[in-house]
Amino acid sequence: MLETPPFPEVVGSDGYVPEPCTVAPEQVTEHVYQELLSENLQYRIEEWEAELEEAAEESGDEEEDEEAFVTYHHDLSVAPGWKAGGHAS
Question: What string of H, E and C letters represents the secondary structure of the chain?
Fold first, then answer.
């Protein structure tokens, strides 16, 4: 394996030169997609999210609240990105 890859002397555009990249796998815990849960649990999650949203609106600091506001679907359920295994959305 080469330590430094060879570069062509003449390239028509910088877009044609590949950029080095790495894969950094990380283990995450996913929970079941919300619609696969029981109706009772779905309702409890919706109530919990509504309470969090209400508290965020009452505090008044919009930027801080957007970062701190947690939702089941986006933060606890199906993880974003490429993955091997886990729950399908």
Answer: CCCCCCCCCCCCCHHHCCCCCCCCCCCCCCCCCHHHCCHHHHHHHHHHHHHHHHHHHHHCCHHHHHHHCCCHHHHHCCCCCCCCCCCCC
